Queue: 2 jobs
Job 1
Amino acid sequence: MDIPTDTPPKPSPVPDGKPTPTEQKRASRGATRPGDRIFLGLSRGSGIVLLGIMAAVAAFLAYRSSVALADDSGNFLTTFEWDPAGITTGGKPYFGIAVLVFGTIVSSIIALVIAVPIAVGIALFISHYAPRQLAAPIAYVIDLLAAVPSIVYGLWGAIVVAPNLTGLYSWLDDYFGWTGIFEYQGGAPRSLMTVGILLAIMILPIITNVSREVFLQVPKFNEEAALALGATRWEVIRMSVLPFGRSGIISASMLGLGRALGETIAVATVLSPSFIIQASVLDYGGGTFAQNIASKFSEADEYGRDALIASGLVLFVITLLVNGAARMIIARRKEYSGANA
Amino acid sequence: MSITTVKPTGTPGGKPSPSDLKAARLPRWSPYVIAVGSLAVGCGIGLAADLDSRMQWGLIAAILFVGVSYFLSATVEGGRQAKDRLATSVVWVMFLLAVVPLASLIYETVKRGSKVLDGYFLTHSMGVVADDEAGGGIYHALIGTLEQVGLACLIAVPIGLLTAIYLVEYGRGKLAKTVTFFVDVMTGIPSIVAGLFVLSFWILMLGFGPSGWAGAMALSILMMPVVVRSTEEMLKLVPNELREASLALGVPKWRTILKVVLPTAIGGITTGVMLAVARIAGETAPVLLLVWGTPVINSDPFKDAQASLPLYIYQQYQSGNQVGYDRAWAAALALIVFIMILNIVARGIARWKAPKTGR
Amino acid sequence: MAKRIDVSGLNAYYGSHKAIEDISMTVEPRSVTAFIGPSGCGKSTFLRTLNRMHEVTPGGRVEGKVMLDGDDLYGSGVDPVNVRRTIGMVFQRPNPFPTMSIFDNVAAGLKLNGSYKKSELNDVVEKSLKGANLWNEVKDRLNKPGSGLSGGQQQRLCIARAIAVEPQVLLMDEPCSALDPISTLAIEDLIGELKERFTIVIVTHNMQQAARVSDRTAFFNLSAVGQPGKLIEIDETERIFSNPSVQATEDYISGRFG
């Protein structure tokens, strides 16, 4: 807008990122002093080391995977077995990730379906509903949820939560068993559903925090516009807050998805794995990439480890794509809202 | 009112007429009463139908609460208000749904963990204790975790700090953009993948055995992006006037960064590092692949398998008997306390040393 | 349809800070009342108490009476949501909903109520945009986002949005302070037309503007920084600008302070 400014523009005391007064640029370009040159070299070198590590991760995983895949007698993508030692096939390695893909996707989807609405609800609670004195402590509690190590979640999930779920599962079976998805035979409830519930709790903080941040960025005057038209609180949220925050919620969910896909030890602790694909999410069985690596590692010989690394590479690529996409959405959003402000 | 009305052209959309300023409202205390009522009825149904899981009781109460608030409001206050109430009650229920697991987790850990957690437990290893035998402790695991985390810090903190300095103070080209993007992506690397990388490089290719050092390398990969991110945020908070004031005095840029910028941001940076430590101290997956675990005390992180606290919990749980579970809970309690202390101290430092943003 | 507002003994607070003290005045229907006064004297705060927007601010609290043709806005059982539907508001910065089209922006208030017909909606949107002197400029791009308009057009869009729900009163909080002179002129002309149908209250920093558009003018002042703002006097605009009864008003208008 063309507001007449009566004060000369200050050199921005920016918290927003790239402070670029020209003299500073010149100073960094012509780093003539030896001290400056060394320091610039060190810090730039660190950045390059970081990129190098990422490249090395990809390269080493790819290399070991190629070793493993060369000898795999099954189809790596469609085989329902994990037998790199060739016990059932007379010495020929026979393994594939079909079960792991299925289990990883199913458990992550369950986690998202449970966590996203709850997380958005909590984020709204903190940003728009909670009494002001309560908002900060609640945000702190959510942060505590993020600080609990995943092994503790696993222990709690396996010993405290899982035994409590039998009732809920047979209940689901009574009413929704006909769908096939919620069929429950009555075994130990160490199933993909249990894993999904646990993952939902674990990814709740990150989704909540990112969404909350976005909701708090909604310009006040936007909300007042809705209020002045006689909107109720919920209508204000529907008209101003949610449309503004939609892309933020999406990228928050994808960050959560990235976490859920790669979670290892909590899943390994809670799930009773088996190399089968079944419609029911309530019966035990199935497996995820990360869980399979942790569970099979101790009994694997060198070739068996390469096979696990191959599955790890797939996981790496998937999480890379999901996280990359989430970050791109956030980055684009920032530009958009910056241009609009 | 004074004016004789020329009736304005059509009033569309059912605008409220003057007396409509007032609206029938549920009394202020109604949400609380509905909440208590729903809880009572939920428990009642749970008892009557003999549902053995408290979760079902709670879910029934929650659904009752949301439903009853909506219908009461719809009959008394009308549709729009009812929707507003529905949203409010759903949001409250969502919040409670998140608090319950945290409360349960902390309660169970403290209750079950305090059974065997004592001075003896903290100062003895598992060296002479069989898996199904009571006794033993986490001394060896504590040493392992401290050494691994310490080594990880030695690698990750300098690289992370310098990278952040590069991004904030120097970087504005393609390289900086690339680094920023990959730091973000690196934040999302599953810990098991970091473990697999070190496994393939250090153990499978270079032929070393498992050691605390191998675990520390994997942990440092997980730690780096966190350190970069938090340091970056803190450096950006340092007002530009400070840098300019120093540069204008003829101080070289690198000394400006070391003597002016870093000291101003040091509180926040420390906080960030401690939060990163808290995160990796609880990591199990890479340690499982690279450190292996051992029941005896091994204080040399560069030679042979070591123990570690999270790994200890996992292995005690895997032993599958009650004494193992007890030890797992006690170790979990110790780990949570350790991490919470780190968190609280970190936040304390953040508050105490918060940089003045110049506003 | 325009209504009279009677305010008596009104105090407003931010937390424990008293922002305005003991204000009583009458706002006549079908006229323009301007609020003038130095920065921080509470005129915007007072404006926001007239449609219960003040309490939206954290810590915001109001004491006293605001009667809209005999109904107390702060009486028990009064729903602030209904108050805001009856008393529309236009803000200092144009604030169209960024995610909505021009059409949806104007229709937003009606859609909230849920009961409307598509054809009726079209009529109302057209009428409101015409009423805001914006129809000819936007009729070919009603489905484009409102944020693509110029500042002055956005502000008229916000006015169209406010009058689409046929409020009794229209409150304007420095509606031209973010606009260039030509857009300002367009808004001032519009205010002149709107007062045929609505009671209008406008806060402005620009005394020429107050003199140009208003029938009555209220002067607010505060005795010192940190003290609550007070109503000094309210009178016919002509009188305030030619022969005010209080010395402070004359000082302010003639530029001797503030």
Job 2
Amino acid sequence: MKPKKRIFGGILMILLVIFLYAPIVYTIVFSFNSSKSLTKFAGFSTRWFEKMLNDRTMIDGIKYTILIAVIATIVSTIIGTLTAIGLSKSHRILKSCVEQVNQLPMMNPDIVTAIGLLMFFSALHINKGFMTLLIAHIMFCIPYVILSIMPKLRSLDPNLAEAAMDLGATPMRTLVSVIIPQIMPGIISGALIAFTMSFDDFVISYFATGNGVNNISIVVYTMRKRTNPSINALSTVVIVLITLGLIIYNVISAINAKRREREEARLRAEMTD
Amino acid sequence: MSDNVTKTNEVQKTAGIMPKKLIQFKNIVKKFDGQLVLKGINLDIYENEFVTLLGPSGCGKTTLLRILGGFLEPDEGEVIFDGENIANLPPYKRDLNTVFQKYALFPHMNVFDNVAFGLKIKKEPKDIIYQKVTRMLKLVGLEDFGKRGVHEMSGGQQQRVAIARALVNEPKVLLLDEPLGALDAKLRKGMQRELKKIQKEVGITFIFVTHDQEEALTMSDKIVIMKDGNIQQIGSPTDIYNEPVNRYVANFIGESNIVDGIMIKDHKVMFEDRQFDCVDAGFGTNEKVDVVIRPEDLDIVPVKEGKLRGIVRSTLFKGVHYETVVETKAGTSITVEMVVSEDKPVVNEAAGEMMSANDFYVDADDVSEMIEHPENADAFIIDRADAQAWDPTSDERISITKLDYELSLKNGRYPVTFHTAAGTTVTADMIVQEANRFVAEEHGEEIYAVNFFKKADEIAESIALETDLKIWANAQAYDLEDGNPVEIVSVEYDFDPANVAPGSYPVTFKTRGYEYRVDTTKETEVGAVVGLTFDPEDLHIMEKSQIG
Amino acid sequence: MKQFRRMTYPYIVWALILIVAPMLLIVLYAFTTKGNDVVTTRFTLHNFARFFSDSLFLKVLLRSLKVAAITTIACLLLGYYPAYYIAKCSETFKMRWVLIITFPTWINMLVRTYAWIGILQDDGIINTVLGWIGIGPIQMMYTEFAVIVGMVYNFIPFMILQIYTSLTKMDGSLLEAANDLGANKFQSFLRVTLPLSLPGIISGITLVFLPAVSSFCIPSMLGGGQYMLVGNVIENYFLHSGDWNFGSAISMIMAIIIIVSMYITKKVDVTEKKEA
């Protein structure tokens, strides 16, 4: 690229960054506004955070969001992992059937999945609440977990499992000590996707919950019409939580990569000796 | 070395001290998706043997090994191991271990943990595990590599880890599935020697799968040659090399010259219309046979001393020897006329265009093809007539937009006129003539080519003249039996491509003839007429096999 | 290893109950009359007839398709250059850019959309800035413009990432080859880069168009209570008026439109690949 073009491109990219981040910055700034205005910054204060902390609905929203996300992630990761491994050894007809069914919640508009669940729960006369919300979340998370593990299983050398059994390991032992360690990156990324899908979900939760059990998205949605800067405070909490999570994740992977690098460098040094 | 082992086996057998039968395959049948991969395999394997299953990919050798390893269940038949049918036993209950093709080392464990895996499963005490693993790593020469990750190892080292990991469990049999396939040639030689050494040292049965005949010959006590799910021959390397049971085995084990022959009577065989002495007997009178002559058994001698005569076609230096190809009988050939014309291109000064086209030959088949597929006819004619239009100043090609011609199946000359958009035209004759083809029954081949016109400068400008001559003459050859194309290996002409005077030149196209591969220590000049000689015992007579 | 196959059984049962059965329920409701008792249900096409005979519903459907189409085109036009720019960066900058683009998508969509209310309001940030130079105030909130801005904002990262991925997969030597064969920068872009990024463009289009058609929180937050897209209508029939049969029919119609458009894009993708 010529310098002129690079400057032009750089300006465009800066505009894109402004577009993507302005609302986020705006939210954080105005959560510390001392007035109720959503547009004029009158001075720094934490009153909206105090207000949020005293607002039961908001605090419950945060609690439920995290609780549901954690349980849904754990359950869907376990079920998804076992199912994916089972599918990789199953007949391809069964495999493609399950893959097709998994496509449904991923490809269907969320609202279609949501009303399906709504009608399903009511047809069985199940009262909507925490359990239905949790079941719904597990339901839409599992396909993503399976999807992120399948490629790892496909690239897994089938001889590895055979080698383990050849050396006397039972199928269960093979699963635990050979297959799962090998597909760990897929499991972790599947769990991560499940967690964020659950944490961010609105549409399905909105239809599948009841009895006053609301997550952050539903709280924001139901409060959208009144001018309420404590929503900004809530948003800031969400942004900080997610940012912290991402930073921790990236730091851990960076440390792991460094460690591996150091190990390799050491081994290389040994080899040349 | 391998000779000795075989001989002791023989001696033991004849003396009645049979070595113990360790494994018996009884009528093993295996199907994949309805396709028979193993068609009833019967095979005995003894203690302390180095057995090689040899065959091309898809012959069933790996399937047989995987059935023994427990990774596949046979559809029919029994696998007797130590007197017990293990056909349906899972792999982790079998007293044998496998070295996998791509090693299948556990990437998340270091070398030590890989080797210790089986012992840990058996819950052996830590100190015992340490002793056994260390001893095994020493055996394969990797005692200092225990802490290393498996990806830090070279292919050859990974190979040794895989062997150590299998042997540390003290199996009665070690299965090796093309374990040397991923190594480079030099490393492979080293590993072959090493594997043989290890087998001697640990004294257990090795069952080795490979498609490499040389590997099989150097390492094995017993070779099992497989093809299409059947066993072709079982025997010691020397037996199989010297007395292949059929053409397939002969071809697979070493490069061979195999010619069609007729057994006149015992010790008398005829091929290439001549009778020769041989040592084989027991065939029917005038039975058709295959005669195998190994390249190293043939000698090149002056024509007078030779039993066969031929022309040296090529020699290739192979490091230790020269591989010389001698043609004793020419292939099918056909000669066509190339007419070099002096036609000047048409010049259209008004439009700034030049244009040219040759007269060209077609046969009745071509014409009926054009009548059936008129949409392809224009392109076909432009191609044959080599019609072109171009801008003389920039040398850029101009499209030919229109053709005028009529198609007739009758022999004769028919004018074709080519037009460009700017109105330049050129006319050439399409000459309909009988096809020029030649059928050689003895070779079972048909060859075909047409006469053609060319301009001198096109011949001079050709960057791949032999290929261009084949295209211009539309030279093709076919197998009479199956209709498959046969390669035209030589194009002969007698003109200087750089300056050809107008006139008529013969061009000859030839297919491959009868050729003998001869290994010689001296280089022979290509084109020399030589004699070939051999001893009666060098002729290996085989029954005509249906397969291969 | 057959033992492992058994591990799929629980999920197969689960998926039949929680994925397949609800979908069948939608179909069942869409083809039956009101009265949610299974015993008294009767087959009818009335729900579909009602949708297609009422111009109000058709208008809403067309508006949804129009808004989704504009959003998709805007994402493609605004997103292609950034994707191209990132693909040309060095390895470390690539990773940083990808992080910058993906980071907002990790934050709750409702939270991000809520922020736009403050930005687009009559006395919001944009109008305040416009006021300084003597323009405005322009009403942006509760207009289709606001809805489209909200959708582009939410969905553009998907488009950028899809195109970026297909561009990085492209072998760099292809462009060198094109240049070597005499193509200038523009020609090589048009004849090499663009066709090779087509799979990315197509999957980007699906990832933007589908959620845009069915979205209902963005229109109801930025478009106001009067502004209706298909999603809002469905929400209404399920949560407010309680006519599940008609709501199911609308959902089915939407799902069919989406499936058909997906099928077409996939077809285009396949033929493109074949031609390539």
